[in-house]
Model the fold of this input.
Amino acid sequence: MYQAPLEDLQFLIDDVLRAEDVLGGLPEFSGLEVGPDLTGALLAEAGRLAAEVVAPLRRVGDQRPVTCDDGRITLSPGYAEALQQLAAGGWLGVAADPEYGGQGLPELYNTAAFEMWNGADLAFGLAPMLSTGAALALHAHGSEALKRLYLPRLHSGEWTGTMNLTEGGAGSDLGVLKTRAEPEGDHYRIRGQKIYITWGDHEAAENIIHLVLARLPDAPEGSRGISLFLVPKYLVNPDGSLGERNDVWPVSTEHKLGIHGSPTCVMAFGDREGAIGYLVGEENRGLACMFTMMNEARLKVGVQGLAAAEGARQQALAYARERVQGGVAIIHHPDVRRMLLTMTALTEAMRALACSEALTLDLAHRGPEAERPARQARIDLMIPVIKAWMTEVGEEVASMGIQVHGGMGYIEETGAAQFLRDVRITSIYEGTNGIQAADLVARKLARDGGGALATVLEAVGRTASQLSEQADAGLGALGTALEQARSALETSADLLLQRHAQDPARALGGSFDFLMQCGYLFGGWQLARGALVAAARAAESDNPFYPRKVATAVAYGELILPRCAAHAGAVKGSGGQLAEFPEAWL
Done:
């Protein structure tokens, strides 16, 4: 059964990232007493809920999927009650603005809790993800009247939220969507159909607030003509009470490879009299408004990759300690140890990167004004890496978990295969990983000539130098490996910038390998930062946690960082046959 990685999270938040020093003095967090006591209390309660309330639902949701019958969704047993427990604890508004009913805590804490919900059951964890994302978009772009009416109830969990982008035949090309919005007094009538709507309908909350992309009658063609609308399941009276049912209905639920407990719906808007909706932001600026939500979601999707990896790792480790083969538990077999250590090193690197960049997000939004642009440039660079690299690695770790189980991993009764089936969607949604790679190279790298990346690489270099100065030979070797990987990424970036200036399409051929190269380096860098802190703590403590952290980082340098060289080679080679190979030969 899943157990939240509380010690690792507290170590990252308090010892490595020094949340008390970095965030505690900021005006936005005054009075919260950010520090080890707050961290410990929050993590302990979130971990308890994850282990005792959410984790038991994982197999239930998989084996008794959500259903849709005559416009009514029936959730898997226990899901509604669990979501209501999270709402009662205030977990859906952890990092939200206190002015609108949120708790105002750092995003760093919200990210830690989010890992736990998804490590326990990824299908369940999608519900708070979509709600907090919808609330964020509304907070950033909604009118004051909409915010006052809807945000407190979204933050309290009384209501949940969704985002409605995709339509049949459109996929990621939102410029061709057909959903329409007709002005009618102080509101609009929305008509159209959306697909793949996560937690699109259910009865676990009193109301569901849909954020819907649609076109106005006189809108320009393409993505420049999309507006964003708030469409509630039940209409809301001025005093916040619920009125009649809006013309919004689930048509069906998708039959999916995994996340069976998540109600992924086909949603119909306005099949009868037209669904009533309210404009969010400016007309024809809907895509920009929705990207506020999507960027938040992309960060959280990366954490889902981490969460699935942690769940798969825990189950594989428990099985390897119990399964006897050749007269010994299989954990003693060298290749099984290789897999388990690889799973551990990758998972801890992902967690270190996710927490580090959650802190960057906090500083970009609430840090000192003069520092915010640089923090924002860094998080902009990191979001596609976190989303894509962590979901790719999450799938690898989940697959490796099956391999540790051997044939029993392929048998559904063990539950090992579910981690892979559930996490497989994460590299597809919120923009496929190929789209993330293209965004990284064509926008984030090219727009400033690699400036934001250069700043990150300077910091990586400083960490590598610190490691090289350590007396521990393992840490010294890690420093050498980190510096080699840093130098290789610098070379790859320069090459892609040159190609992009000459032929952007050719540059994109190397974008995925470049993104993976970034991920392995950045994850190793953050793991190495933790190793430096752990090494200092180990000299003062007999807690085995600290030498284990050092050894895990050294193992990452030995087993994982060499992948950077392979991806660097692929980036270099992507200007050859990848570009020249005739389409007809594929």
Remarks:
- The longest strand covers residues 187-197.
